[in-house]
Write a sequence for this structure.
């Protein structure tokens, strides 16, 4: 589990472009979770989730969510 701050230099409020997320602020909060398993001593697999948004401290607050699977191999 992780908690942090993200700073970006992208658009924060762009009404002209509707296909981009409007983040509302250049400073965002980040929350992440990851859980996994090691098998056969060298292989690792995990599922991860990451959420970034301004926590409704600015308007708009579209936010970004990422869900994924991670695979690793230990040498």
């Amino acid at each position: 589990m992780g908690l942090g701050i993200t700073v970006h230099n992208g658009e924060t409020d762009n009404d002209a472009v509707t296909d981009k997320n409007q983040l509302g602020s250049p400073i965002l909060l980040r929350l992440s979770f990851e859980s996994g398993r090691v098998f056969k001593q060298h292989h690792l697999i995990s599922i991860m989730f990451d959420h970034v948004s301004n926590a409704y401290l600015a308007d708009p607050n579209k936010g970004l969510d990422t869900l994924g699977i991670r695979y690793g191999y230990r040498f």
